[in-house]
Amino acid sequence: MSATNTTTSLQESDTVRKSPWINIEPQATSLRQPSPAPGQQHRPGPPRHKSSIRTQDSFTQPRDIEKHSKLPYFLRMHGSITPRMIIPLLVVGAWATFITCISKFVHPLVVSDLLLTVLGFVVGLGISFRTSSAYERYVEGRKYWAQLSQTSRDLARHIWIHVDERHETDPQLGKADLLGKVTALNLIVAFAVALKHRLRFEPYAQYDDLEHLVSHLQTFAGDAYDPDTTALKPKTSWKRGGEYLGMTFAESNPRKAIKRSRKNLGNLPLEILTYMSAYMESMTRTGQLPTGVQQAMVMVSSSTAPSDGTITYMYNQANLASMNEVLAGTERVLNTPLPIAYSIAISQITWVYVIMLPFQLWHALQWLTIPGTIVGAYIILGIAAIGREIENPFGRDENDLPLDKFCQTLEDEINIIAARRPPRFEDFVSNQENCVMFQSSYSDLVSRSTNDIRAGLKARTNIKAGGVHGGGQVKSEKAEV
C-alpha cells in the first residue's frame, strides 16, 4: 500500500474511531455506519448490545462497581432479589391465608413441630449446598477474568516494548511494523470482547464493540451473518416485566441466536488466538523478536524451551496458552451448571417446607401465621433464588460480573501502553530528575568514583525509615556521598 493510500485510510478511520493509534471504539459509543450506495439496500445487523446502562434497564444490568450508594443495604433495590420474590410471596401469602381460615373457622389443621425440625435440617443442607456451589462458580469466573486481564497486559507490554520497529532500516517498514503492533494490541482487546459475547450466547461478530476489531479477519462468526435469521424481535414491556419479576415463563432461551443460525458459528475467541499466534510467528521469523529470552516470555514457557537456547514456534505458548486456558475455563463454568437433579430436588424440598409452615405455625401464632409464613418463605426462597442467580456469573443480571466494564478497563490500559513510544533505558536513566541516591541526580553521581557510589549504597542501610524522607539527615548524607 502506498503512503498516499495509507494516509487516506488513516484519515477515514479517524471519523469512526476516537483513538488515533489503537482502533478501539469505547463500548458506550456506536460506530458510524457508511450510508448505502444509491440503489443499495442497507443491511441491518444483528441485535447490538450497548455497554452503557439505559434508563429502563437501570435495575436489570450488572451493578456499576464505581458508583457509590449511601442507602443502607436493606433499602437498596438494585441487586436485590426482592422483585423476584413478589410473585412467590403472593402465592405463599394466599396459601397461608387459606390454611389459617380453614383452621380458624372449620377445623384446626395442625401437624407436629417435629416435622418442622426435620424438614428444616434437610432444607438447610440443600440450600447451603446450592448457594456454596453457585458462589464457587461466581468466584471461579472472576478469577478467570482476572487471569485474562493479567495475561493481556503482560502480552501487550511485551509486544509494544520488545518487538522491533525497523525505522532505521526503512521508514516504510518501520511504519508497517508500528501498525502491525497496534493491530496485535487490537486483537488482545478483541479476544476479551469476543469472549464476553460468547459467554452471553451472542455468537456473531457484528456488535458495536467488536465489529471494528475483527471485521478484517476471516472468521466463521463473521461469515455466518444472515440478517434474516439474526434479527431478533425487541422485548415487549410485558416480557421485560415478567423477567424482572423472575417469572420463568417470561424468560427467553439464552441460546436462541445460536439455535437459529443456519451456518457453523465457529469459536470467535479461538480464531482470534490463531491470528495472534500467526503474528508472533511472523515476528520470530523476521527477527523482530530476536532474543531467546523475550521469545520465551511471549511465546514459549520456560519448561518447554529447547536446551540449546533456540526458540521455535510451539503450541504451548506462555501468554497465548494462558488466554486459551481462560477460554476453556470460562466455557467450563458456563456449560457445567449444577446437575439438574440437585436443582429439582432442592427446589421441591424447599417448597414442601414452605407449604408446611402454616400447618406448624397455626397452633402457636393463630392469625400471625400469615405474616410468619411470608417472612419464613422470604428467607428460605430468597437464599435459594440468590444461588440460582449467581450460578452463571457472565450474564446481564444485576449480580453478574460487569464484563462490559472489565473490557473497557482493559481497552483503556492497552491504550495507555501504546500512548507513548517504547521507552529506552538510556533515555530516562540519565534524566536530571532521576534521583538515584540521596536526592542526587544521575549527572551528580556519574562524576563520582565507583567506590564512592558503593559507599553511599552501604550508607543507605544505616538510615532509618523515617530519615529517608526527612530533610536534614538526607542532605547531610548527600554531602558525605
Description of the molecule:
The protein has 481 residues and is mainly alpha-helical. 58% of the residues lie in helices and 1% in strands. The protein has helices at residues 3-14, 82-105, 113-162, 171-199, 211-214, 220-223, 227-230, 237-244, 256-259, 268-285, 292-298, 318-335, 340-365, 369-389, 403-417, 425-429, 442-446, 450-460, 465-468, 472-480, and strands at residues 435-437, 440-441. The protein has a two-stranded antiparallel sheet with strand order 1-2. A hairpin with a 2-residue loop joins strand 1 and strand 2 (440-441). The longest helix has 50 residues, at 113-162. The chain is elongated and about 100 Å long.
Indicate the topology.
Blueprint: H1 3-14, H2 82-105, H3 113-162, H4 171-199, H5 211-214, H6 220-223, H7 227-230, H8 237-244, H9 256-259, H10 268-285, H11 292-298, H12 318-335, H13 340-365, H14 369-389, H15 403-417, H16 425-429, E1 435-437, E2 440-441, H17 442-446, H18 450-460, H19 465-468, H20 472-480
Antiparallel strand pairs: 1-2
Helix pairs in contact: 2-13, 2-14, 3-4, 3-12, 3-13, 3-14, 3-15, 4-10, 4-15, 10-12, 13-14
In DSSP terms, counting alpha (H) and pi (I) runs of 4 or more, how many helices? 20
Helix percentage: 55-70%
SS content category: mainly alpha
Tell me, rounded to a whole number, the average pLDDT.
Answer: 77
Mass-distribution shape: elongated
Run of helices and strands: HHHHHHHHHHHHHHHHEEHHHH
End-to-end distance, in Å?
58 Å
List the uncertain runs.
1-59, 300-316, 468-481
Tell me the β content.
under 5%
Spatial arrangement of strands, main beta sheet: 1-2
Radius of gyration equals 31 Å
Please count the beta strands (DSSP E, at least 2 residues each): 2
For the sheet with most strands, the description reads:
2 strands, antiparallel
